[in-house]
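Exercise 4. Each item below gives a protein and its sequence. For each, produce the structure-token representation.

Item: ABC-2 type transport system permease protein (Chitinophaga terrae).
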Amino acid sequence: MLSTFRNIIRVFLREIRLVTKDHSLLLTLLIAPVLYAFFYGSIYKFKVEEKVLLAVADDDKSELSRTFVQELNKMQIASVVKAGSLQEAQELMYYGDCQGYLYIPYGLQQKVLSLQQGDIVLAVNAARFLPSSELAGALTTLALTVGGGVRLKYNQMQGLNTKMAMQETQPVNVDYRPVFNSRSSYGAFLLPGLLALILQQTLLIGLAESVALDKERRQVPGLVALAGGSYSATLWGKGLFYLLLYGCYTLFFMNVNYSILEIPFRGRVPDVSFIFFLFFLTLIPLGVWLGTIIPNQLMAAQLMVFSTYPVFLIAGYAWPFEALPVYMQWLSSLIPTTPFLKVYISIVQTGGTLADNSMSVIHLLLLCMLYALLALWGIRRLEKRQQSLSL
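Answer:
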């Protein structure tokens, strides 16, 4: 046991020397994680769209329409741009000066006061999903509120007291309470997963590059010899450096980045620490195995960078896992990101526990064993091949 530990430490120290002497590894492992976390995080710091420009053409010019436009302009999501006509409002949207337009036709107030249905037109530029959906939701809420106020006033004029008039106006009251993401913001949803993805991809890029570099230089037999001929010591000696480094990054992200970006943390520290530890134990053999099958360091970096967005898309985070085609679900199940994100988001955002996500934890454990076997096989295969080439 003591000799195995010494072998692991020797490979670990060699990995430190390798990283410090290679500019690509230094950039990937020591600069990219922090830089990307703050750069991408700052994009979503405010988390919600604010003051989206909306052109308004008011042909009614009534007290009701003016009140409607004033209340719309007071909302966080919208900033009203007055347009003289419907055509002008359309042109403002078509030329990109506004994200949409609102048209209030003549006779709206008269119809509403006579309890007829009054129509207003909202056109939004759906090429940008977030502004269009936020504007549509905000305007729907405002229309219901203003319409309800008018009907309440009408019922009071018919002799009903305030309580009865309210019941007649709104017989069913929807008590809408979004939990865990109270502002229903895209940034609050995206940031926790984005930070975890940055850790994953930079670790895989760096480790795959390191193994591919040893492969390119034909140093795998010497690496295994340094580990006393043990493939396990070779794997975990090389991986120990990444485990410790990314453990420190995790601690930094969960304290500094979460605080600066105002991301709520609702879970227990031991639970999130364990799932990150298991996640890294799965990623390390995955990165080593990928490095053994990629021809050189440059291609390792290119392939790993290229895989970032596809991995994010099929991991069940940006798009529900159940909505993926069946063959994509099978592929997604082979990626450690899928079970990890399920457990991690449950703990961080909803206050879940490891026990609540036991199946995903087992899934991640099985992937850890699978990739450990593949990594050991890859190291052994490379050692045998390079030994035969040197003879």
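Check: The mean pLDDT is 85.
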